[in-house]
Amino acid sequence: MTAQSASLAGLDLRAEIDRLRKEKNAVILAHYYQKPELQDIADFVGDSLELSRKAAETDADVIAFCGVKFMAEVAKILSPQKTVILPDVNAGCSLEDACPPEKFKAFREAHPDHIAITYINCSTEVKALSDIIVTSSSAEKILSQIPRDQKIIFGPDRHLGGYLSRKFDREMLLWPGVCIVHEAFSETELLKLKAQHPGAPIAAHPECPPTIVDHADYVGSTSGILNYAKTIDADTLIVATEPHIIHQMQLAIPGKTFIGAPGADGNCNCNICPYMALNTMEKLYISLRDLTPQIEIEEGLRLKAKESLDRMLGMASGTVGMGDLGAR
Ligand code: SF4
C-alpha cells in the first residue's frame, strides 16, 4: 500500500467524489477506455468527439477529465475559462509521442501544397500546425468533404490514415505513428479465437493494423463499435479495441457475450492502454479535492489549435465547410 492510498483508507471514494463534484460544480467526463469504476462515476462517458462536444457545451466550473492528456487539453482549448483537471498528468499517448511538433512542422514545410488532416490524438502544438482535426468517428465525414484534387498529409496514426486511404481510394502522405495498444493485436490469435466462435462477428477500431481490420465485419470508432454491438443478431461479439469499452457493452446489452481480441500471448491484457490505466478513483478524488493537476495552455497556441478543432466540430456536424485554409 502506498502512503497516498494509506491516507485515503476508510474513505468512501464514490461518496467523496460525489460530494466534491457538487461542491466544486464539476463535471466528470470519462473515455470508454477508462476503468469501469471511473466510467460508472462519470457524468458522461464517450469517445473523443463526444467528449469534445461535452467539454465545449458544459456550464460546469470544473472539468475533471478521466482520459489522457491530449483529451484534457482539447477540453481546455474549447473551454478556456473552465478549470480542467486530469487525475494523472502522466497519462500520455503513443501517437502523441510519435509526432514531435518540430518534426511535423518540417514535414509540412517540405510539402507546401498539402493540407494537414490530423487525428485528435496529438499534442496541442501539432493541432496548431494542422488544418483540420478528425476523430475516428468524424474522419470519414470530414474526408468526404475534401476535394479529390487536394493533396493531404495525414498523421499521426498511419493505420487510421491507411484505412481511410484505402476506403476513399485516395493517396495521402502518412505520418508513421501507431497506437501501441491496437498494434498489439495478433492476427494468428484472432483467427484461432474466430475458429472457436465461428458465428461471432468481429468489430475493429481503425487504429488496428490491416491484418486485423481485414478480418473485421465492422470497422469504426469506439462509439461506432458500441452502436454496432446493439444492432447485431449474434449473441457473441469479438471486440478489437481497448477492452474497457466492453464495460459499456455489458451495461447496454447484458444478454450478450463480448470477447476482447487477443494479443500475441493469446489474451487481451496487453491491449489495456497503459496511459489510460494511470487514472484511478484515488487520483480522481485528490484531483477534485485539490483542483490539480490543471491543464494550462498559452493563449496564442490555444487560439491556433482551436481553429483546426473548430473546423472539425463544424464539418462533423455539417454546419461549416472546409473554408479557406490559410498558410500556417
Ligand atoms: S489507446 Fe492508443 S491511441 Fe488511445 S490513448 Fe492509449 S496509446 Fe493513445
Short description:
With 328 residues, the chain is of the alpha/beta class. It has helices at residues 3-7, 13-23, 36-41, 48-57, 69-78, 94-97, 101-110, 124-128, 139-143, 158-168, 187-196, 210-213, 222-231, 245-252, 281-290, 299-317, and strands at 26-31, 44-46, 62-66, 83-85, 114-119, 132-134, 151-155, 173-174, 202-204, 218-219, 236-240, 257-260.
User: What share of residues are in beta strands?
Assistant: 5-15%
Which oligomeric form is depicted?
A: single chain
> What value does the Rg take, in angstroms?
20 Å
The fold-level CATH name of the largest domain is Rossmann fold
* Element order: H for helix, E for strand: HHEHEHEHEHHEHEHEHEHEHEHEHEHH
The tally of beta strands, per DSSP, is 12
Average pLDDT confidence is 94
Number of domains: 3
Structural shape: globular
Unique ligands: iron/sulfur cluster
Residue runs with pLDDT of under 50 for 5 or more positions: none
Pathway: Cofactor biosynthesis; NAD(+) biosynthesis; quinolinate from iminoaspartate: step 1/1
GO cellular component, one term: cytosol
Catalytic activity: iminosuccinate + dihydroxyacetone phosphate = quinolinate + phosphate + 2 H2O + H(+)
InterPro entries: NadA (IPR003473), NadA_sf (IPR036094), Quinolinate_synth_type2 (IPR023066)
